[in-house]
Amino acid sequence: MTAAPLTPPSSTAGAVPAAPQKSAVSWAMDILVWGGVIAVLLYSVDAVDLGNISRLFSGNESTSLFVHDLLRPDFSDWKMFVAKMWETVQIALWGTFLAVLVGIPLGLAAARNMAPAWVVTPVRWVMNLLRSVPDLVIGLLFVTAVGLGPLAGVLAITLNTAGVLAKLFSEAVESIDKGPVEGVRATGASKLHEIVWGVIPQVAPLWTSFALYRFESNSRSATVLGLIGAGGIGQVLFDSMNAFDFRAVSAIVIIVVIAVTLIDSLSQIMRKRLL
């Protein structure tokens, strides 16, 4: 019995496939799009006052004083700074917590595989409205409504973050596996049971990760909201800047950076344990 002759390997077996060829129309569209972006950038140089960027390096007296004081932070009121920073963290924490409570039902109602179109469409309009209005503007409205203090900051962060989380939550729900939901439905369970036992277990880790990301962002947003009187260390920062006390400003910035870094590190550890 003779062995079958070995066939030589094809010369094209290990060849690298050629790159896809783009048509002339595709090249023209790319040139048109990127050329338009470059044209808008060049046209807007004067609008954004980039021609005067040399002022940043002019070395005038006020700039020199500002830099000199920033390099000598004054921590004489560090206890008050830390207390206000802790208040800022609490504003971000409560704002994120309330936003999660609002975002969960909105996210479920905005998911196309969970609700009918006549529910999804208006809920998505509400989500877009909450996301489109900056939290600083919402904060100004609440400062007018409830007065100065941390409550205005909590409410502003709640509304803005609820719109963002609802969008993320709904997208997570739309990407779930239908098998567990259909299995729960086959037992004759209600819609609520389908959500509790078929949907929530699949999206809970991702939802938690989204909430932690927003808490990190809100810890910075709460600082900015303090500039309009919505509580926290931002108010102290604003007062120090108005008083030209740049040494105190430097100390406050250092405390904010340390606090945000600790929050980011803690959030990262929690996400690694969840995902």
Low-confidence stretches: none
Give the helices and strands as they follow along the chain.
HHHHHHHHHH
Main pleated-sheet profile: none
Radius of gyration (CA) equals: 27 Å
CATH class: Mainly Alpha
Q: What is the CATH architecture term?
A: Orthogonal Bundle
Terminal-residue CA separation: 59 Å
Report mean pLDDT, rounded to a whole number: 82
Q: What is the β-strand count?
A: 0
**By helix and strand content, what is the structural category?**
mainly alpha
Number of domains: 1
Give the CA-based shape.
globular
CATH homologous superfamily, by name?
MetI-like
Question: Number of helical segments?
Answer: 10
CATH fold name: MetI-like fold
Helix content: over 70%
Q: Classify the beta-strand content into a percent band.
A: under 5%
Oligomer: single chain
Give a written overview of the molecule:
- Helix 6 (150-174) packs across helix 8, helix 7 packs across helix 8 and helix 9 packs antiparallel against helix 10 (246-274).
- The chain is built from 10 helices and no strands.
- The protein starts with 23 loop residues before the first helix and ends with a helix.
- It has helices at residues 24-43, 61-70, 78-110, 117-132, 135-146, 150-174, 178-186, 191-225, 233-242, 246-274.
- The longest helix is centred in the C-terminal third of the chain and has 35 residues, at 191-225.
- The chain has one domain (77-274): MetI-like (MetI-like fold).
- The chain has 275 residues and is an all-alpha fold.
Provide a short characterization of the protein structure.
The protein has 275 residues and is an all-alpha fold. Helix content is 72%, strand content 0%. It has a single domain, classed as Orthogonal Bundle (MetI-like fold), CATH 1.10.3720.
